[in-house]
Amino acid sequence: MSVYFTKDHEWISVEGDSATVGITAFAQEQLGDVVFVELPEVGKSLDKGAEAAVVESVKAASEVYAPVSGEVVEVNSALEGEPGKVNEDAEGAGWFIRLKLADKSQLDGLMDEAGYKKFVEEQH
Amino acid sequence: MSDNTATETLKTPLHALHVALGARMVPFAGYDMPVQYPTGIIAEHTHTRSAAGLFDVSHMGQGWLVGPDHETTARALETLVPADIVSLQPGQQRYTQLLNDDGGCIDDLMVSRSALPDTEGRLFLIVNAARKAVDFAHLRARLPANVKVDERPERALLALQGPKAADVLERLLPGVAGLSFMTGRPFKITLSGRTSGVYVTRSGYTGEDGFEVSVANEDAPGLWTALIDQGEVKPIGLGARDSLRLEAGLCLYGHELDETISPVEAALTWSIQKRRRAEGGFPGAARIQKELAEGPSRIRVGIRPDGRAPARDGTEIAGDDGRAIGIITSGGFGPTVGGPVAMGFVPPAFKAPGTALTLTVRGKPIAARVAALPFVPNGYKR
Fold first, then answer.
1. Using a CB-CB distance cutoff of 8 angstroms, which residues of chain A are in contact with residue B40?
2. CA–CA separation, A90 vs A78, rounded Å?
3. In this predicted structure, what is the pLDDT of residue B156?
4. Which residues in A lie closer than 8 A to residue B27 (C-beta atoms)?
5. What is the pLDDT of residue B76?
6. A114: part of which helix (H) or strand (E)?
7. Does the domain made of A2-105 have the CATH classification 2.40.50.100?
8. What is the location of CATH 2.40.30.110 in chain B?
9. Distances (CA, A) of B312 to B315, B354, B355
10. pLDDT higher than threshold 80 for residue A37
11. Distance, in angstroms, between A58 CA and closest chain B CA?
């Protein structure tokens, strides 16, 4: 299993051609209390960069973009009733979607954990 | 990046204390203000509803209108607002709106009659931060020469709100618990050996019982710290201030009020007392009296979207036949309600609580219902 990170503050945990996607602990911290998560339908094909989900805090709505292309094979429907899981455990129980990867080479441009940590420090 | 033409962000006298508390600071109405503290908006909101929340609202505009006697000052202000100011008793406070000549709202504000005989003829005003320059210029331009506008930028404003607010403030300012809702008077407070004069009103912007305390800028940090040190009190940022006032069904200037919206349309007819409705004599009286007699073409209502998705400001409102009828002006998540809440404008035919509406959120229809305001019962001590 390898974990990648994007500049849009998403994490992607990859096992074979299956990728679990969520927002980072840093992102949930910035958003504040999450009150609603809108997830895509299972079976939907997402192109890299397409809107995959919407996460709403008390103050505002933010889009979550597909970090890589793939088909949505599972969504975390627990977030519908308990959106606060995103705040409690953003990089675990607060995952958003599971994708079947269309092109594993798209992972090459992403950051590893150390790279993301450095990126966040440089941005803030 | 630098931009020499940019105006400098203003700071309230409590800025350093917010930063020390770990607040996330955001620009608001030209000021660098706390939007939330580390516990987050929901915890701050809930704390205010159950105990006591302390707000820095020093960015708001404060000032006195100073005339020769109450009757003269009140009559002068009545030419610009639709509330009955003349009948205010000493110490009494009233909510009203500065109107333009078309009956739209330049701002909404609080007006207090001075509580003491030695300051007879004075009215204390509190106006919105983003509108204070416009408001005070308007007042200066329109009031007669014998009523002076005395802006008080050297005063800070703290709000203590919630069911424990009276118990807490009574410890520091004995006597405040005896004030009734929408009244106020001056008090003296001694902190660290220094005595200062404060003006306290029993009012606020959360739907809860509470107080607003006007204090000299140099004494504000001491008062803030003394209040925060009380066990029941937590600091509350602008994020929870917005969710609290939304649940309380209170208007926010720039959302439910602007220069095109009349107080009748904003469902603020209660703030236009009987004598003024009959006599007029305020800007835009012709329009407002017509709306009072025949009903306005649109009216502010509360809206509860079904499900959990918040419907934000700018969301289109349709009737159950799909035809667009209005727009949401404030919308978000109500922590006490436990779901999305909103306010918006609809034609009066759609104003009854329970009326089915359809909202378009991110291109998708969401069912919603008109709801009575406030969403959460208020805790005012009358």
1. 32-33, 87
2. 13
3. 98
4. none
5. 98
6. helix A113-123
7. yes
8. 297-371
9. 6, 20, 19
10. yes
11. 6
| Residue B177, φ and ψ in degrees, nearest 5 | -65, -15
- Measured between CA atoms, how close is B342 to chain A, in angstroms? 12
Residue B173 is given by DSSP the state S
Q: Is the pLDDT of residue B6 over 70?
A: no
Q: What is the ipTM of this complex?
A: 0.90
- Shortest alpha-carbon distance between residue B270 and chain A (Å): 30
Cβ(B329)–Cβ(B313) below 8 Å: yes
Residue B215 has pLDDT above 60, yes or no: yes
Integer Cα distance of B331 and B129 in angstroms:
21
- Is A59 buried (19+), middle (13-18) or exposed (0-12) by CB count in 10 A? buried
Identify the contact set of chain B against chain A, taking CB-CB distances under 8 A: 35-36, 40-43, 45, 239, 242-243, 308-310, 312, 332-333, 335, 340, 362
- Helix segments in chain B, DSSP class H: 15-20, 41-50, 70-78, 132-142, 165-172, 220-228, 238-247, 274-279, 285-294
CATH of domain B297-371: 2.40.30.110
pLDDT at B3 > cutoff 50: no
pLDDT score of A123 more than 90: no
Average pLDDT over chain B reads 96
Residues on chain A touching B362 (C-beta within 8 angstroms): 38, 54
Report the CATH number of the B15-58+154-247 domain.
Answer: 3.30.1360.120
Listed by start position, the domains of chain A span 2-105
**Residue B7, pLDDT score:** 66
